[in-house]
Specification:
The complex is a heterodimer.
Chain A: E1 4-11, H1 16-29, E2 33-37, E3 48-56, E4 69-74, H2 77-83, E5 87-96, H3 103-106, H4 116-122, E6 126-130, H5 132-139, H6 145-152, H7 161-171, H8 174-192
Parallel strand pairs in A: 1-4, 4-5, 5-6
Antiparallel strand pairs in A: 1-3, 2-3
Helix pairs in contact in A: 1-7, 5-6, 5-8, 6-8
Chain B: E1 2-6, H1 7-17, E2 22-25, H2 32-38, E3 45-48, H3 52-64, E4 69-74, H4 75-80, H5 82-91, E5 97-103, H6 117-123, E6 127-128, H7 133-150, E7 154-159, H8 160-163, E8 165-170, H9 186-189, H10 193-216, E9 221-223, E10 229-234, H11 236-245, E11 250-254, E12 256-258, H12 262-270, E13 274-278, H13 284-291, H14 310-318, H15 344-354, E14 357-359, H16 384-396, E15 402-407, H17 408-424, E16 430-435, H18 464-470, E17 478-481, H19 486-498, E18 503-508, E19 524-525, E20 544-549, E21 552-557, H20 567-571, E22 577-578
Parallel strand pairs in B: 2-3, 2-4, 4-5, 5-7, 6-7, 10-11, 10-13, 14-15, 15-16, 16-18, 17-18
Antiparallel strand pairs in B: 1-8, 6-12, 9-11, 19-22, 20-21
Helix pairs in contact in B: 1-2, 1-7, 3-5, 11-14, 15-19, 16-17
Classes of the chains: A alpha/beta, B alpha/beta.
């Protein structure tokens, strides 16, 4: 197989590191070589963050560049739009519909663009936009939004659903496991009815 | 058994397997996790030192004492540790000694983009550079054997992408290395002129021996592909090159990046039609090639600034552009900000309000420079806030309109000497220590003031007020304030700025992200009371925004992020904020 490129984008502190670990575990379980690249330090303080997961027979670079991502999982709408140029033509963007104002918008120096999901859809992007935070809340904890996003993308991430679910089980700490598995199942079922 | 490990975790695993006994480091992104992972092994003694110089010297002492030793730091940390670093080439080692230094091309979390390879050249020390997690472990282990074989410290150079990228690593057993017997050897370890003169030729000979070794070292390898292009590269740049060229090029992949083997490079260059050198930051390998008279493509087309990627190589070397889609709207930037409930916020609000010149320092609180707080005039390096304030005030003949701002860990790192300078030379400057009870920016590391060690063991209580008093600050000018009370802070600052004596104002409140710090219910805005005056927007809280409604544009608090610090409530002249609205 050719290398599969998955990006996880969001706002620092939203749980993208756990999401990348889950995808890494799923790829390893599938017998693939996997590389993950994370952001630590200053960018984590509420800034725009990106995590790369690449898997396949042989993976060289740990990063994903513009026009290379097979799937982008986004925790936030503005971040989805920011990283959209990284998506391969015809590939899938899965984004939460949550909007978090960045500081330039908060202080009135910039505008948060309107109707971003519709605009990205109009570009011919294969977009799935759902409120991952609401799904996580329904499952019992808003913090499970990262696992909900993975559930929403279960059909395009290239893994067997059971393998992916197993990776969630493996990576999430025991006390949060039940809620996260529920978030995963709920999100995956959202997908079925689409 | 294989495990997915970040480069930093794999280095720590390498330390464990190599039988390392002693680790002393100071945190700094992207190097921090090496020491944190090393600390998880019971067989390794691991500690945070107050700064990188102390860390490197402690680890060198452990090596002299006969144990395998390690010290990690970020690139600018090596500047702090440069003094002992240069001398270690002369003294050599006892037990194997490796110094890990992590550069930050692209400045993900740094104040500059320096290339640590110049230190290896300057200090005449060997340097190795892994390209991924597998090599992080293998190279680390090999470095210990080589350190003992050649009687020299080795520098392990990492970059952010290698430190913070993960891949599957095969786990092996630890090989115990007993502590060597100690023999006194002043001719080798007491570096005064008479001894050092005899040691310098040893250093030069060793470097020549290492260059000889570099020709056959397994750290370097040639991969034969098409001979139309020959790529000389090291570290993560090798991965980018492979991604772009695959088998359409031959590679000289260097793992031992100092000293370089003239013979190896000449032979490789002769075996290909053209040579491209791919290296981030400075043209170090390229300069060596040119000094040999080898024609190469390098910094004439590739940038000196920023991080490389497969996309950059495709664009600069092959003229290929990516195929992309994007929305027409301008996407506002999302810079990092002080967290909700951050105790530093009230301090910077106050400093801005008072119109003070602020000599800043390195930490989360550097974000106080960002709008709307915009309350910082200078930031250079660890500790510079206090020393630079002293010179600033002396030359302007006024110490009533300016302050230094420094974190607790940074003060212990290199702020104390600056404070001594103020006292010794009769300054009357005012220093604010932001004591949030942790090393924040690098992700919550313990420090000498937190009462816990890297291994989470209790540490003796060191009292910040007593340190300042011991350094000569008068007790009445050492003030402790809660930064959640900006009015009180302003009053204290006015008093101390007016005083004709050096003063320290300790703003003490734990980091809002620390475990155990109480989170209060989120605040709400009473839209009837809010007049949309935006007084609450001056504190730059990411939870507050102005939202339009039928009754006008009014403040709103994002309840999912707010931790109830209540600073906004103190800003509001109309009492619109409260946490108790039914």
């Amino acid at each position: 197989m050719t290398t599969k490129n998955i990006m996880i984008v969001g706002v620092g502190g939203q749980g993208s590191l756990l999401a990348s670990r889950i995808l890494g575990a799923a790829a390893t379980a599938g017998g693939y070589e996997v590389k993950i690249s994370e952001v630590h330090g200053m960018s984590q303080r509420g800034g725009s963050v990106v995590t790369y997961v690449r898997y396949g027979e042989k993976v060289s670079s740990p990063v994903i560049c513009q026009g290379e991502a097979d799937v982008i999982l986004s925790f936030e709408l503005l971040e989805a739009a920011r990283w959209l140029p990284f998506l391969k033509p015809g590939a899938t963007l899965i984004t939460s519909t949550q909007e978090i104002n960045p500081m330039p918008v908060i202080i009135g120096a910039a505008q948060y663009p309107t109707e971003l999901a519709e605009k990205m859809d109009a570009l011919g992007v294969n977009i799935i936009a759902k409120d991952a935070a609401a799904i996580a809340e329904e499952a019992g904890n808003v913090k499970a939004a990262n696992v909900a996003l993975i559930g929403l993308g279960a059909h395009v991430l290239g893994f067997d659903a059971a393998v992916l679910r197993g990776a969630v089980e493996e990576c999430v700490p025991a006390k949060a496991r039940e809620i996260n598995l529920r978030a995963f199942d709920l999100a995956a079922s959202h997908q079925d009815v689409q | 058994m294989k495990k997915i490990m970040l480069g930093n975790e794999a280095v720590a695993r390498g330390l464990y397997e190599a039988g390392v006994r002693f680790v002393s480091s100071y945190p700094g992104t992207p190097s921090t996790e090496i020491s944190e992972f090393a600390a998880k092994y019971d067989e390794i003694y691991a500690e945070w030192a107050p700064n990188e110089k102390v860390a490197l010297e402690s680890a060198l002492g452990a090596s002299f004492g006969g144990g395998r030793a390690f010290s990690a730091m970020k690139h600018v940390g090596l500047n702090v540790a440069a003094d002992p670093l240069f001398i270690t080439a002369y003294t050599g080692v006892g037990g194997g000694f490796v110094i890990g230094v992590a550069d930050d091309p692209g400045m993900h979390s740094s104040q500059n983009e320096q290339d640590s390879r110049h230190y290896a050249i300057g200090a005449k020390l060997p340097m190795i550079e892994p390209a991924d997690s597998v090599e992080c472990k293998e190279f680390t282990k090999l470095a210990y054997a080589l350190s003992e074989q050649f009687d020299t410290p080795f520098i392990l150079r990492l970059t952010t992408r290698v430190s913070h990228s993960g891949g599957a690593v095969e786990l092996e057993e630890r090989t115990e290395k007993p502590v060597l017997e100690y023999t006194k050897d002043p001719a080798k370890r007491v570096m005064m002129p008479g001894n050092a003169k005899r040691r310098h030729p040893v250093v030069e000979q060793r470097l020549a021996d290492l260059a000889e070794y570099a020709y056959t070292s397994p750290l370097n390898r040639v991969e034969k592909g098409s001979t139309a292009v020959g790529i000389i590269t090291a570290g993560n740049c090798y991965n980018y090159a492979k991604e772009v060229y695959g088998d359409n090029a031959s590679y000289l992949k260097l793992g031992l990046i100092h000293p370089l083997s003239e013979k190896l490079i000449r032979e490789f260059a002769a075996s290909v039609d053209s040579v491209v050198v791919i290296e981030e930051l400075d043209g170090v390998i390229e300069g060596f090639c040119r000094s040999l008279g080898i024609q190469v493509t390098g910094k004439d087309v590739l940038p000196l600034c920023g991080e490389y990627s497969q996309e950059l190589l495709r664009e600069k070397l092959l003229g290929e552009e990516p195929c992309t889609v994007s929305v027409a709207d301008e996407i506002p930037v999302r810079p990092p900000v002080l967290c909700p409930g951050c105790p530093h916020r009230g301090v910077f609000y106050t400093l801005k309000k008072m119109g003070l010149t602020v000599s800043g320092d390195i930490g989360c609180y550097t974000l106080g420079a960002v709008a709307p707080l915009s309350a910082m005039d200078t930031t250079l390096c660890m500790g510079a806030s206090i020393s630079a304030l002293h010179g600033f005030n002396k030359v302007r003949g006024d110490d009533s309109k300016s302050v230094a701002v420094i974190g607790d860990s940074t003060f212990m790192h290199s702020g104390m000497t600056g404070l001594v300078n103020i006292i010794y030379n009769g300054g009357a400057s005012t220093v604010i220590i932001l004591d949030n009870r942790i090393t924040g920016m690098t992700g919550h590391q313990q420090n000498p003031l937190t009462g816990l060690t890297l291994k989470n063991q209790p540490a003796p209580y060191i009292c910040l007020e007593d340190i300042c008093a011991g350094l000569g600050v008068a007790r009445e000018h050492i003030r402790v304030v809660d930064p959640a009370q900006p009015a009180e802070l302003e009053k204290v600052l006015k008093e101390e700025l007016a005083a004709d004596a050096a003063s320290v104002v300790i703003c003490r409140r734990p980091c809002a992200l620390l475990k155990g710090v109480e989170k209060k219910p989120p605040l709400r805005v009473d839209r009837e009371k809010c007049r949309g005056c935006k007084a609450c927007m001056k504190i730059g809280c990411p939870c507050i925004s102005m939202v339009a409604g039928e009754d006008g544009v009014k403040a709103k608090v994002d309840a999912s992020m707010c931790v109830g610090c209540g600073l906004c409530e103190q800003m509001c002249p109309f009492g619109a904020f409260s946490s108790t609205i039914e």
